[in-house]
Protein 1
Amino acid sequence: MKAKILIGLTALLIAGTPAMAQDAKPVSLDALLKLVQQGRVQDQKEAKEREQRFQADKARQAQLIVEAKGMRTSEEARSERLEDQFDVNEQKIVELQALLNERLGSLKELFGVLQQAAGDARGQFEISLTNIQYPDRGEFLGELAQKMGSTSKLASLEDIERLWFELQREMVESGKVVRFNGKVVTKDGNEVDKSIVRVGLFNVVADGKYLEYVPETGRVVELQRQPQDRFVKTAATLSTATGGLVNFGIDPTRGQLLSLLVGEPSFRERVDQGGLVGYVTIALGAVGLVIAVLRLIWLTIVGMQVAVQRRRPDAPSRLNPLGRVLQVYADNPGADVETLELKLGEAIIKEVPRLNRWNTLLKVIAVVAPLLGLLGTVTGMILTFQAITLFGTGDPKLMAGGISQALVTTVIGLCVAIPMVLLHALVSGRSRRMVQVLEEQSAGLIAERSESRHGGAKAGA
């Protein structure tokens, strides 16, 4: 047990000795005690050195405190002097400002008007088409307005003359048609150099296309959609003109009317707004139109054949309805009147389905087309009210756009139904006339047979 305590004490003593003492390994208890004594002496030496450094730093810190107090006293005195000087300067500024206002007199009102004019001109010039050619005006006007707003600066005579010049140049340029080279951003996003024609402050065109000036970026952009062809043609004429009078579609509202024309949907877009119901209605109309045209052509040809046959009743032909009816009369020369009437009526009945073929389908299309349009309108109105339920009625354009799309199907249905009604009436009228011709010829043949029989009977009597 004592050996263990001795070993632990030895390890503790070794751990507490300096590094130099630890390098020497004791071989006996005397050597161990010697190492412990050396470490103790070393520790006392280091503690004494630390104490001396602390005493030296304490004296230096006291000196620094004294220096800081002296500097504080000096700065406080300087602060008092600066405050007195500030009060004097502030009083002097008030006196000078009063003197400035007194000397300005009526000129102060003039500078106020100049400041307002510079600000208004800057706002107008930034959105003006002339800013494409003179983009540096905004910077000058902004500096002038800022200078006039400051009480320490006044506008010089050169500044006033420059403002007058810019206003005068804007008025002059508003009445000119000018051609100049500039950069244009095309539809695909590329910026190319083009010859631009500016018509006053209203429109800019290039290569026969209308352009748009974007004040935020200062660039000239080609419209993604051009207005109607009649306006584009005038733009093309203006782009290639070298002088004289040229017809041109000008926008007096500086772009508002043009944006409305561009935003107006085309015929194809109107049709697309009808959706599936609109496509079905148009398809039915196309089918009905093809049928009506074919029937009219066929009835016209048959009518010509019947007209020829009426002039040659003695040579019936089976290639036309009247010829087939006359052939029945020729095939029954000895039949009595009643029998002949029945046979001719049967022949006419056989011809009626051929003459009235597809008329019923045309009538059905004429009736179904507006019903399909009404179906599309009701469906569109349901979608519109659903959108109102979700987003509210805060945006009138949302409701107006949905209602206009819903009414497109009704327009399509009426555009299909009205021609179908007219075509059905035309085809049916021609068919009825053909049947009427057959009935008239049949009645004439029966009357002729009846007269021949009655005449023969009288002669026999």
Protein 2
Amino acid sequence: MRLVLLGLPGAGKGTQGDRIAVKYGIPHISSGSLIREVVASGSEVGREVDSYTRKGELIPDELAMQMVYERISKPDCAKGWILDGFPRTVLQARALDQRLAQIGLDVQMAFDIRITYQEAIERIAKRRMCSKCGAVYHLEHYRSRDMSVCDNCGGELYRRTDDTEETARTRLVVYMRQTHPVLHYYSMDGRLYSINGVRPIDEVFADLDHYLQRLAPAESVGDAL
């Protein structure tokens, strides 16, 4: 099961990716988490990635592709993987297909979790994250029991510095310019599935799962969160 999650910032890709990972036993690989892991590894690739992130620059396509390909080549990805935040450009999507084709694989499904611009801005501005485990909460729709503490690990919740309305609007513009064309790339050969993301989390997951069950044998399926 090889999946790509797409959608505006704040669409819920991370939340749904975690649920898919639990039910189907495949790793959820978010670009942000992957960058942190690669940098922390101290590898040559990690040092090169760090040189760009420290300056606030985008990681070049070739380096991003190398980073992702190394991750999906690890043993825990033998049954599949979920990419969240990659590919961010058509060039990256095409390069990923080319690399996978060399070993007889492909991206099987790409999901566009659709929300409105206004919903995206509101979700980002009201998002809170755990300082320890990275769990994501929302001040209204996905609250922790105590909005200052994470339900999972007790870590302190905080607002990321880029989770503001102004930054959200900038990120939406960048997404539409760079990443929205990726939807058309996957739609051209029937791999894109559109999901209404402006609904409760369980309902969004139910729609995703409807399609995913086509790919997974019954014996490999566990329970979702």
Protein 3
Amino acid sequence: MQNRTILHLDMNAFFAAVEQRTNPHLKGKPVLVCGNPKGRTVIISPSYEARAFGVKTGMNLWEAKKLCKNSILVECNPANYVEVANHLQKLFIQFTPLVEIFSIDECFLDVSGCQRLFGSGRDIALKIKKRVREELDITCSVGIGPNKLLAKLGSHLKKPDGLVIIEPEKIQQVLENLPIQELCGIGPRITEKLNKLGVYTCGQLARYPVEILQRMYGIVGLHLHDIAWGVDDSPVMPYDYVEPAKSVGHSFTLPKDTFDREVAKKYLLQLSEQVARRLRKGNYKGKTVHLIIRIPDFTTLGQQVTIRKFLDEGVEIYHTAVKILDKFNVEAIGVRLLGVSVSNLICGSSQLSLMPEENRRQCLIYAMDKINDKYGEFSVTWGRLVSGFKQNNIISPAWRPHKNIRFGYN
């Protein structure tokens, strides 16, 4: 894969920027996008005005308010972010079909084959930045490199609204003194282990004996050696490519700790419905249900059950998850977070049953899906979830659209 020109586009403080775009009176002000401001939440996206005070994504709300006393809290609005993300995708594919959605606010573009039409990688980046600003009133940082690894690094070197080009002949110069944690794929745990070996920069990692890395980390050690030299042959996947799912799950931090099993079961039903909706959208079914419980002291507990029948209905997933929940003494340990996932998946097995009762239930669920697709999640739901229930409306930064699925949030 020689002579590639890869762009990585990273929207600047995306959620906060969309809120400032939607509400012009927020422009220029320290905005903190979070979950329910009245509940227990963390900062999902601080605006750059708030970041100037030291506020960071993932920070506890009380800590952020202590750093930035004049900040404005805004509850996140996933529908707005998805709408803007879809607009961006439509814009990008006007330049190349090789658009890989990395997350809701990041994507890769392989423009190697379209430079005769639109100019150099730099020309294309400037055109995209201009259109993003004019059409959506937000900004993005762009990195340009010969591969995805270096393009992503480039977009992070200059923010906000930056443009960095890493030429092939300057790769080693750029990487020599770069801290290893700046490279995509090297997380805190690997960073800590490499630091203990005296490896702090990419230059040091590149010169570290590859045999030792391979002995310590196996195939991952070879990968670490490659990226330290700026080597990355992974292709930019077309925007409609969908990697087969291995599991589908949702988790939710409760507004406050509960020691009431019935309250926990109510959230469990909502999570099961969300998981089931995603399974059906992807035409998946699974037969292993995994329940995660995080208790007030942040200890995480979990168990899974594998059954004979493949599931894609929320109530069935819920009943299986409740059987796992019953193994824990909720009244004694308490619940801070619940998570439900389904794995052991098969795809493409959906068909109407010949049994009248089951057929009617499948038709009912299909009708509910159609209504919720059109009017929003939980527009139609089970009665138990209606009264006094606050739906989780947090959207994951790892959101991706799916092929053959109407764009929306879960």
Protein 4
Amino acid sequence: MTQRDKILSMIGMASKAGKTVSGEFSTEKAVKSGRAYLVLVSEEASDNTRKKFTDMCSYYEVPMEIFGTKEELGRWTGKTYRASICILDEGFARALTKKISLNMEV
């Protein structure tokens, strides 16, 4: 199992536990309401979407990572294509951030 698979699997576990929201509107709402611990934006997201979430996460001091394809993020959250998902649990967020940073080093 690759590091990428482990990250996607963890996103799936967080989703099953009800600790994620997905889609731009829901992600934005979670960030602005202070419920977000981590925002994941798809590698395929448009420049506008990336900038929007980069600026918003910076302002609200929420960590953000660029990870996964829209199809991967959607499949692992049990939805269709997703450009963004938000992790609502501190433990999952911390573990995902750690795994994603390890994945970047490989």
